[in-house]
Specification:
Layout: E1 2-6, E2 11-18, E3 21-28, H1 35-38, E4 51-57, H2 74-87, E5 93-98, H3 100-111, E6 116-122, H4 134-138, H5 142-159, H6 163-170, H7 174-185, H8 192-198, E7 203-208, H9 225-232, E8 236-240, H10 247-250, H11 252-263
Parallel strand pairs: 3-4, 3-5, 5-6, 6-7, 7-8
Antiparallel strand pairs: 1-2, 2-4
Length: 265
């Protein structure tokens, strides 16, 4: 693992830079997760193993530092990823973001188009409003979450048996989780969806099959409204079978295959 000092914060963002062919793949994780934990398993797939891959642990998460003065907005996270890619002298990368990381990837592609040539969003937040993870967090004030809510959230994750996610939540800073969640669900103009639609680069949105609901299973999910909506907006849609939101864990081979197909665009 390597580290870059983010000037002005006196904090290190840490990342893995795995050698290989370029353009590089850049992975950005979701809320309470860490790229160093969630993505290595898919990079063993033969379709991706030859590519250079940068796995970023966002500030406040994973092995990166937890600066208390950082705002942890989606825009600020995108800026720090941009600083890292500039430091590595990388351009025109294929950026893969999962969940919150997908929203950050959209902002990165919008604000720094020189850095992103192919955008792959895996169930990223597109519209304002709370989700199943961000909702319970943002229902509390930052002070409440730091005092009691974070511990309760972690107990809930453990009780659900999500041992892998529990590990990365334990490595996350409660302040970073709350501030990131608040920014993620906030009203913004343009929205993440509007930013995604405005991009002219190849764009893919990946769903886990189980995330689309039981009514769609076995029907190739073509009737799901957001599948139709994204397809109509000329966004490529890939569906990972036998997987839910945590598709890189549920079906790493299927997720790797979906990414590989998207890289051909």
């Amino acid at each position: 693992m390597e580290a870059l000092l983010i000037e002005g914060l006196n904090a290190y963002i840490r990342y893995n830079d795995l050698p290989g062919d370029e353009p590089a793949l850049v992975f950005i994780h979701g809320l309470g997760s860490a790229s160093s934990s969630w993505f290595p398993r898919i990079l063993r797939h033969s379709l991706l193993a030859t590519r250079r891959a940068v796995l970023v642990d966002l500030l406040g998460f994973g092995f990166s530092d937890h600066p208390s003065k950082f705002r942890y907005s989606m825009e600020d996270h995108a800026d720090t990823v941009a600083s890292l890619l500039d430091y590595l002298d990388l351009e025109r990368c294929a950026v893969i973001g999962h969940s919150m990381g997908g929203s950050i990837a959209i902002v990165l592609a919008t604000t720094r188009p020189d850095l992103v040539s192919n955008l792959i969003v895996a169930e990223g937040n597109l519209d304002p409003g709370p989700g199943s993870v961000s909702g319970p967090i943002t229902a509390q004030t930052e002070e409440q979450f730091m005092k009691n809510g974070y511990a309760a959230f972690l107990r809930g994750v453990i009780s659900e048996g999500w041992a892998d996610y529990a590990g990365t939540v334990q490595a996350s800073d409660p302040r970073a989780m709350h501030r990131s969640a608040v920014s993620l669900i906030a009203e913004r103009h343009p929205t993440f969806r509007e930013q995604l639609l405005a991009l002219s680069i190849p764009r893919t949105f990946i769903f886990g099959e189980a995330s689309l609901g039981e009514a769609s299973l076995g029907k190739k999910n073509i009737a799901h409204p957001d599948v139709q909506r994204l397809s109509n907006d000329r966004i490529r849609v890939e569906i990972v079978e036998n997987a839910g939101h945590d598709m890189m864990s549920d079906n790493p081979d299927g997720f790797a295959q979906a990414i590989a197909k998207s890289l051909l665009l």
